[in-house]
Design goal:
The chain is mainly α. The chain has one domain: Tetracycline Repressor, domain 2 (Orthogonal Bundle), CATH 1.10.357.10. It contains ten helices and no strands.
Amino acid sequence: MQGEIKKDMSRKKAILRAATAFFSQKGFSETSMSELSKITGVAGGTIFYHFKNKEELFLAVLENVKAEIIEEFGRYFGEKKFENGMEMMEGVIFFYLYLAGTMEDHFLLLHRHYPYKLAEVNPVCRGHLEAIYNCLADIFEQAILTGQKDGSVGDVNPRKTALIIFSMIDGIARFKTYNLYDAGALYNEILAACRRMLCRDTPAA
């Protein structure tokens, strides 16, 4: 019984992994469930056992994307120690851009138009997207709050400033996603701009 459960979970993970790549690279409408079955070696009936239809599979992929990105950040924070909040913010920026390069399918999926179109009519999709971006914004905000406690960050509005910095970094990540510009070439300027934004003499928003 235990072996069957593990096998079932392994199949589900394989489906989600392949579906993430398909949805990100081909888009929702061009993703074929039969092709997904062929690539994963999982029978179509098994896929529909786990996910009732393609839209439900897409929503599960979004939820999994969030879990895997947050898991990577958790691992990073578990291994990395920061002297203060400003250094933590620089680490968050570095790691976000790093993940955008190493988890390309995840970020390409988030940068596609379809998820936001679906979110207009599907509250579950909207909820997943809000959860993803809230979790990411929370990470930036935590660095600011930490810096305000240790004195390395000035009197800025933590949430608003976190959202501004997050939006800027995610915009740079989109350059990487679509191969429009070398994000690495902007890295030092990004850090300098964020330091100026967070410096101690910055007035509160």
